[in-house]
């Protein structure tokens, strides 16, 4: 999972690209591999392997056109899509989501999500905290970073927190990092260039046996990242570190070339221009990311995040929805079906949501604008009861009228599924003060 030899180019911070890749993954930024291995061995929770996959629908998905349709509302409210029956009597969702509808007994819908502050930002979906909350020095860590700190790595060659999202043009959309926990708990983001350098194809057998020299290079990079970290050494962990560097576990998990074509076809084909945007903007419908997410948690990741397309439909809401929502339907259904077939449905929790909902009233551009009063989310797996709808909204889907569910309650449920009690679990911040994971610490009662 490393490529050392070859011409080294410089970043603007004067750290060479070659040394930037010498730690075998961006999530290991602040520590040497022996240090990481030692921390993992000393963590008593490392043997557990519950996991979370979060699908972030950046832009704010239209809840009225997906999970909470209002067919009896006036035309300027109900829009163009019709509800269809699911395989759970009494539950209906959008006609654009027939695959999810056909397996609704494996999902739970929350129609009454509250607590959004209405910003185009992944912060609330990543951390569970609100922007107005008092922040510790360094900022709140994302959930994946918290898991990295609390539970460590399942397998030392697989980062516990992996972000499969593309780099998005609107920077606040991008998945959040470690906050006060520091670079050692950053998400690993395997872009194309990093993946191409995660194989040992240019290191000779002789060099593989030069353990001391190899780890000296790794420690040199570590010191460039954080001069305050003291060098440590241990023969046992040095041996293990070399094993990490020669492992292809993560590379193989993210490489879909050898996946059964029937399984790959179930997930669908990547659409680099689903909405006509320049692919460099990062708003593509990459169906392969759903499959990679499943394979990553199987390999040992504790949390995997990925974004999907874009849902900021201030205009042409229904034309855009017809392009994107069926693809989301296919990817999510394939992921959850796959988890059940592989016996992972008790251990892996899937959450599908965005930062807020859309306005009940359609604007003069056939779009829906931002709406923070209520939105919807979809959950599956994690051993949770399924085949249910939690909460309801009024006749126009503009406010929660029954069982409002705060976004932090969703996080409390995810932590509960991972075996972590947010009411008793704290993480020390940069000043040594214990910080609770959440303010609202009770999980959703219908899901436990």
TrEMBL record:
One Pfam entry for this protein is DUF1501
Q: Which PROSITE patterns does the annotation name?
A: TAT (PS51318)
The secretion signal range is: none
Where does the source fall among the domains of life?
Bacteria
The record's InterPro entries line, in alphabetical order, gives: Alkaline_phosphatase_core_sf, DUF1501, TAT_signal
Please report the name of this protein according to its UniProt entry: DUF1501 domain-containing protein
